[in-house]
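Appendix B. Raw example, untouched.
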Amino acid sequence: MRVGLVCAQSGPADARGDSSGPAQHVARVAAELALRGHEVRIYERRDDTGAPDLVDQDGYRVERVPVGPAGPVPSGELVRHVPAFGQWLSERWTGDWQPDIVHGHFWLGGLVAASAVRQTEIPIIQTFHSLGVEQLRHLGPAYPGPGERIPLERALTRAVDLAVAQSSEEVDELTRMGLQRTAVAVVPSGVDTERFHPDGEAVPRDRRSRILAVGGLGPGHGHDDLIRALRLIGDAELVIAGGPPADRLSEHAEARRLREFAESTGVGEQVKLVGAVPYGQMPAWYRSADVVACTPRYSPVGRIPLEAMACGVPVVGYSLGGVADTVVDDVTGRLVQPGDVRGLGVTLRRMLADDAQRFAFGHAAVDRVRCSYTWERTVGTLERLYERVVRRRRPAEVEPTVAEVELEPVEEPVTA
């Protein structure tokens, strides 16, 4: 089968590279599909004029499309380049290589893919990775997306054959946006179990219990709640990994605010910000922790709890999105109602005090990941979905097309 994966922004070409996040997810999907004998090509915007137009590695090809200005561009500014990107792909696919199916990634990649196939019978699958309407609901004024994103995502749901959700919560949101439940399939992200496993080095630590939180330093990651909860835990260390490199933390406004907040809360000595950690070093950080805390306001994908669980570390997290789907309460960790700081502190304190429970949760966590969340399982599910959609083929007409919607004035402003 010929598979085209479309992203609007550039990402790592190497599926096993030293980077994390959704872009690396796309590269890993491509590599696993190639291992299964499929012809796979990733299409992304070229934002570096010095980068090659074509890269062949890990069994698939990356084609960088010369659309838009050089250098990284905010997603809101890339919307106007969607028609040109789609036209480039449409012309490309009239030659010797035409995909049997196209898989759009992120909302902009999906718009480009839908624009490219709108006059063909090539079916299209879409993975959003996050939804603007969900981010707006959970983050409020901290929502970072452009105003046109939400109406365009709604239009995109009417232009695809199937949407791939990464959590049960995302399924509910997509159906509220107008998709039939039969047109949504849950396919969670996979975990590289060759990299993330219990055996190996751990980052050195002192005698105190260690709680590890991983993610960015934005207000939506819930670090404030963890800092407040420390007052109920006692003598434990909270390590926050994420944000800018360590040597630039002093210049980062949110890092300074978190440190000041910890001081004012009386736990400044217990909170340690280590900045961005290279992806290849993350297993050692997970193994160094007694428990990993996942307390974001919005979590469409359960990547962090899965990586921690693969390393044999129990997770305490808020019961929402990808965290709720991946963590089995009282089996691989504990789930707490979002925003319940007291419940979070009490749960963490009890887990840190119970060595036997953490040991049992850690072993169960490893088993869960290896049984249900390997990349082989994830891509095998995608492969079956591709085959099903290709057999069914695309409906003859889909109204309105994304191309039409994106040229209309946006009448739905994003407000908090």
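End of appendix B.
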